[in-house]
Amino acid sequence: MIDIGLSKMALIGAVALIVIGPEKLPRVARTVGTLLGKAQRYVADVKAEVNRSMELDELRKMKDTVESAARDVEQSIHTSASDFQKGLDDTVAGIKADGSGDAPGLGFESGSTIVPAYSHPGKNWRLKRGAVPRWYKARAGVRTHVQSGAARVARFRPQKFH
Fold this sequence. Notes:
Layout: H1 6-20, H2 25-98, H3 125-131, H4 134-140, H5 149-156
């Protein structure tokens, strides 16, 4: 960069005052300042554009790596699912070929009951309330008994000693 000190600036100002003249110097100084400001803004915009393009390239590379990793995970899940399905089909075929109706390896019994699927309690507050154990409610500070405001005040009012 150009190394301009205070003494050099004073020398440039004195020469400009002599060459340009005192009546035109303020207008020339404003014009030079405006042009320098525009040049600085232009350089800043170019730097910002270069930085954005570099970040965009980095993001594209990162996107490609994430997509390849996702494809690898998806492929491994598909292969493991197909292996599991193949093993399950072989087991079911073996049970049908055996003819006993029991599957001791899987825990199925011929007289076993089918458990219904989980259903969310929705707005049934009794089911929701019963799902959390009392010891957890006591530890978490959940109120289990309804108490009116007046009763609560009376409960926590300091006792008078006679």
